[in-house]
């Protein structure tokens, strides 16, 4: 089968198409014929990881497709069943194995392109808002990178599940307008506005209860100024770097701030399975009623994986980028 791996760690230029055997599902797994796969930041981080050693992996952690072989013993996953979800790498390929307890049944009303845009961003958004951020009804949440895949998912979940007041940051008026269409109450252009000052104005000096931070180092001081007493600050990305100089930790104590770092991909299979099961119970009804939907920016054919990753690195997308692998 065809698959996408790397020649060595580096830029998008190192991506290469390879031919490898179709994987064999082990007990508890499904073999999926992959129709679509999502491009995620974690794919780029893995591609750039200088500590990787050969043999290099097939990239991709998120797919949608149909069951070809069921080694799980679970009757709901018969051959031909449409599913989507997270895989332990191998998603940029014609076939992939998926743990059955992480597979989500795909309703006929949702196509493969949309389905590939759900699992990673919505599970991440749900985990950060609720498992880690403990977002409560009608609290205020600040979502940085509001037009990203996780950002657009978090806006919808916070508004629909919690009726939260949602404030977002983004780098263009187009992105801010789109976030408001999804339910954001306030939008801040980080290129032209000081978001900490805007948060103080919007919240009348109270600050926000939860921050979803994809940015990292450069937002440290402004996030500290923006968060409320007893606020929960969830760090889920490091787009601006990792080093904060001259850190004054006294505000963490004074405001009783909970600062939590997280990544979903390295979590255990059991953690991901439990998260998936709760997500299906709590959020599936919102998909079925179209109150919540995946946001797809654009698709690229499988052969254009390099261009797809470069497009993401250029920060051009509003929502998800999808690779189409088979019809």
Automatic annotation (TrEMBL):
Keyword Electron transport: no
Family annotation (Pfam families): ADH_N, ADH_zinc_N
Alphabetized CDD domains for the sequence: p53_inducible_oxidoreductase (cd05276)
Keyword Oxidoreductase: yes
Top-level taxon of the source organism: Bacteria
InterPro entries: ADH-like_C, ADH-like_N, ER, GroES-like_sf, NAD(P)-bd_dom_sf, Quinone_OxRdtase_PIG3
Keyword annotations: NADP, Oxidoreductase
NCBIfam families attached to this UniProt entry: quinone_pig3 (TIGR02824)
Molecular function terms, GO-annotated: NADPH binding; oxidoreductase activity, acting on NAD(P)H
Enoyl reductase (ER) domain ranges (all copies): 10-323
Organism, scientific name: Candidatus Enterococcus wittei
Name of the protein described by the UniProt record: NAD(P)H quinone oxidoreductase
